[in-house]
Structures are given as structure tokens and as C-alpha cells.
Amino acid sequence: MSQDHSYLSGTALTLCSKLNFCVRWDSSASVTAEQRVAVEKSLQANVPKWTDHLTGFEGWPFKNVSAQVVGWAASDASKLQGSTDGIEVYSTADAEGIPECDPRCGRFFHQDGDYSECPSGPEGRYDLSLWLTEGMEGGAGGDWGQRIGSEYFLGALEQPHIWLHEFGHTLALDDFYDWLPTGQESFIMNAGSSMEVTEFDIWMMRDWWRNLASRYTS
What we know:
CATH architecture: 3-Layer(aba) Sandwich
CATH topology: Collagenase (Catalytic Domain)
Structural class: alpha/beta
Radius of gyration: 17 Å
Number of domains: 1
Number of helices: 6
Distance between the termini: 37 Å
Number of strands: 6
Largest sheet: 6 strands, mixed
CATH class: Alpha Beta
Strand content: 15-25%
Order of helices and strands: HEHHEEEEEHHH
Strand order of the largest sheet: 3-2-1-4-6-5
């Protein structure tokens, strides 16, 4: 698990009821159309394991938060097998040469909501990156998105506990490396101690919203 996170200030989830993901395919392997569909379905199934517990709580403005994949970035478009109709395909790379979804379309880079330089306009924005890296163990997460092993994620689509932990960081929750709250040992944000989001994780998330709600509700 990562030890360095840039935490969400409330922007991504409080401004949209649908989270647009862009996948950074950081792998030498190809990815099939079926696998890409499975990645999107996994996000659609697992985002609500966190966010459904905010519905109706302390003025949370959304009945639900859904997820969709709007783009993929790869070092070569040929790595994306099958049809890519309906998604953006990016050949952009970061300073280290790693495939990156176009920063001009990313919410992390444009938290003011100005997507005037995004080639596909505001409709082409992505809120979070799902960075799938070949051979990676553990993960990282923050307001920019989540990074985990590509092989791991494709093999754990129904219950990707590492991703669930990293999405907790996207929600601003911290790691528990050096201490544990009294009476709590097994919960998703205590890395490696739980395979699922627990009641205590939900309590922490709700406490996060309780302290931010006044910024976004009246």
C-alpha cells in the first residue's frame, strides 16, 4: 500500500453523481475488449460499496454515485484489442514516459471546472484515473485516482480489496501504519486486515462528509 497520498478536498464526489474514470494501461500486455468491459463493471459494482452509505446522510446531495470508464491510455493503441467505439483512446505520456490520460481533460488538473483545452470538451472529462501497472504489488491512492497491479485487478474484479483500500484514500481516509483506534483491528483502511469495507470504514467516511458538508450544502 502507498504511504504518500494527495487527499481529496471534496471536489470529485460532491460535484458529480457519476464518476468518470480513465484507465492508464501501464503494461506490456494487450487488453481485450472483454477485459475492458469487466474493468468498468468492477468499478460500477465497487464504487457503491463506499458511496451508497452516504445516501441520505447529513445532506449528501446524491441518491447514488455511479461509475463509467470514458477513456483508456496506452503506449500503443493496438494494445487495446477489439472495438474502442465510445471511449477516448489516449497516447499521452507523463514525464517518465508512462501512458497517461490527457491532463487537459482531468478533473485533478482542472478543479476549477475549466475544460476549454480538452479536445473533446467538458463531456470528455474524467474525474479519476485508474492506473493499472504491470507487476505492481500493493497500491497507491489519492484525489487523482488509484494505482494497483494490472494482473491483480483483472484477477480480483468482484472484490478488489486493494483497490477498495486505495479508493478510501480518494475519499480522504488515512492509513493506519503506526496505531489503531481503540477496539478496531480489521477494517479496509488498516491495510491487509480486511477484504471488504466495514462499518468502521463507513463511519470514518461519514465523519469526513460531516465535517465538509457545510461547504457544499445550504
